[in-house]
Model the fold of this input.
Amino acid sequence: MSAISEPGALPPVPVPAIERRRMSLDWLGVMPFIIFAVLFLIWPTIYLIAGAFQDNEGNLTLANIANLFQPSIMAAYWISIKISLASALLGALIGFCIAAAITLGGLPAWIRSPLMTFSGVASNFAGVPLAFAFLATLGRTGLVTSFLFNVFGFNLYAHGFNLLSFWGLTITYLYFQIPLMILIITPALDGLKREWKEAALILGATGPQYWRMVAFPILWPALLGTILLLFANSFGAIATAYALTGSSLSIVPIVLFAQIRGDVLQDPHLGYALAFGMIVITGVSNAIYIWMRARSEKWLK
Done:
């Protein structure tokens, strides 16, 4: 039976065949991204999660998840969290000061463009080149270490500093954490309207009071979300840490690499469980970042 249209109802407007063809062709433009995401992000993630709940024979098990609570593995997670938190907080503080200086401060306008360009490059500079750069700069025979000793007679390593340590790796991570903070927080600082500060000053507020009662409450979701993003960014870094410290610093990515390679306990499924734990931690951090970012954008609009 054919449907009876109600009196006064408008007939459906047909979509032209040319427009339908254009919409279908538009999907071809994003197909490389979809294929890349499926092959190198979604499928490996599903494979790791499935492997975390399987034994060597392929049977379902929770033993791999239970083994994550071993003292050595918990210690690796803890030191990774501390390094990620330290680099995220320091990177956020230093990056925020630099971003505020180029957006709200009195620096010349021409400084902003090269600084943002450098931040875009430096935020993606990691791995073996970054580790080599810091070894050549702050290693035992590095440029800065030799300069301090030959010019000022100050032995950096004799006073407790060690590049292959907690603070050494944290300082190395700051090389890409600070630029990433600058790139993310600069648009939020640009969103602070001049009228808000003028209104606060007219009402008798001082500069610190404006930041404490107006600017920071508006920027707080973006700041907290960016700190979480920096935390996730450093928590999953392995190439820089492995090239710099080798196995002398047992952070989770290095322990995971050793388990997957099978040269420690010969248990790759425990490595999958380690990766699953990292996915959970970074996933929660990124989810909170996205939520905080959305809240911040509502205020800045």
Summary: The CA atoms of residues 84 and 231 lie 5 Å apart. The chain is about 75% helix and 0% strand.
